[in-house]
Amino acid sequence: MSGVKVKELTFRYDKEVVLDHLSFEVNKGEILAILGPNGSGKTTLLKCLNMLLKPKGSFFIDSFDISKFNEKEIAKFVGYVPQIHSLVFPYKVIDVVVSGRTPYLGFSTPTKKDYDHAYNVLNKLGLTHLADKPYTQLSGGQLRLVLIARALVQQPKILLLDEPTSHLDLKNRVLVLKILREITSEGTTIIMSEHDPSLVSIFSDKILLMCNGKIVSYGKAKDVLNRENIAKVYEVNVEIFERNGNRYVFPIVI
Amino acid sequence: MPILLFIIYLSIGKYYISPLSIFNENSIEHTIVFNIRLPRAIEAMLFGACMGISGASLQTILRNPLVSPYILGISSGAAFGAALSIAFFGTGYFFFAQPSAIIWSLIAIFLTFSLSRFRGQYSSISLVLAGIIVSALFSGLLALIQILIEPEKTHTIVAWTIGRLHTVTWKDVATSTPLAILGIFGLFIFRWRIFLLSMGDEEAKSLGIDVEKERILVVFFASIATASVVSVVGIIGWVCLISPHITRFIVGSAPQILLPVSISVGASFMLIADLISRTIWTFEIPVGIITTLVGAPLFLYLMRRAMYEWS
User: Fold this and answer.
1) What is the value of pTM for the model shown?
2) Which residues of A make CB contacts under 8 Å with B?
3) In 3D, which of B271, B210, B306, B242 has the Cα closest to residue B51?
4) What ipTM does this complex have?
5) Which residues of chain B does A72 touch, with a Cβ-Cβ cutoff of 8 Å?
6) Which chain B residues touch A102 with a CB distance below 8 Å?
7) What fold, for B2-310?
8) For A93-108, what is each residue's pLDDT tens digit?
9) CATH top-level class for A3-220?
10) Cα Dmax for chain A
């Protein structure tokens, strides 16, 4: 089977159950969006899929058991774009992006070939003009794209993104999500956490709705995004409109 | 740059010596250069090189431009070790002070590591906090020794902690070189990993490196580089903090360039500082005082520039 298969994934912090027996599958080249309120376990789930945290249960990518891999092997399979990146030193954008080649490098520094690879990815994302800029001077949207570029340089089979559109304006949100859509056309599978159900409905193939570490609903947008589910998870009443097969979710506030 | 300074350094002093006159083996110039100035120059450069690259590496991996090798307790451990040996064996036996300093600085690092282990993991913050605790502990013990022993021994200990180069002999150079080279070489090999470690633990891990293991190795190499020279010349301050900042100012922050260049910047800085310490007054001022007096205002200047550029 090609794609991602997660079975009975459970994670505990000390004794508190954060993720409770999650099972789901994502086909190759699909986008899975994880929806859920703050603290529902979205970020923890992404960190488990990246083996930054060690969960119980099984996790397969193209029928490889990732939990048996070391850091370097995992990095060839899984790319990770964190929600928050704290900047310390004014590194050049190209140096940050080329660091995605690390799992292929052994112990040496990147070669010209690695830099060419990084420039190609920057070019594909329309970021070539930023290559020599200090990445501390980028806007929020540009920084997010640079981190996505770094993850793509890893040539991962799946790309994990933790709220890729948080803190971005509408233009940049759509830009980032459009770019993610393009990435999947080359066979990369994407799993991302998100907050806006309407955007998720437009830009994802499957939705996983979570609450308190459990799956509430999982499937296509039309099956997951209904008034009952949203009310159950977010405790907010909503109106849902449908257009061109996409669902638009608006809260009703009196 | 360091090579040019090296030649100038050897020439200038109480007696000016032409670079060419040293080739006459029986001349007094030959003796001065080979037995006094040369070992001193080499030790100064070695010290600067170790401090430059260790400071640059630690600042980068701990993501904090104010960190220096001294913050991990290395210097306090070394000072304590030297003081202990001076207290027991007297002021004449510098022979014992050096191994004692190196052993105690390694004990201090080991303590820092053990204290920073929390829930089976080492984090950057716990490492710095543990370093501060260990520094404080050894400073306290050092003060205790100073109070308990005779005044003239205390004077020697104070001179040791300020740091000096005028006692350096070929034997000192020989004892500090192997460990210094090992430390410098280790850090140089790790320069790309050091860059990745500065991205933060989770990101470095997701880029495919074993964060804890590699961070420990980097700190280990920085520690032995520091301990190897501090145990010989004492705690010469500011070089480790300021050399990386001067280097960053010249070539930028990317560690693959920053690290090698900080070696020669550190070495040059020390040569200049020691040149000043030998020549500026009728008697010699300990080089540790010069590095601090020059370093502090220079650091202020660089800090202002950096603040301007980073904001």
Assistant:
1) 0.88
2) 47, 50, 52, 70-76, 78-80, 82, 85-86, 88-92, 95-96, 99-100, 102-103, 105, 107-110, 136, 150, 154
3) B242
4) 0.88
5) 208-209
6) 192, 196, 207-209
7) ABC transporter involved in vitamin B12 uptake, BtuC (1.10.3470)
8) 999 999 999 999 877 8
9) alpha beta
10) 61
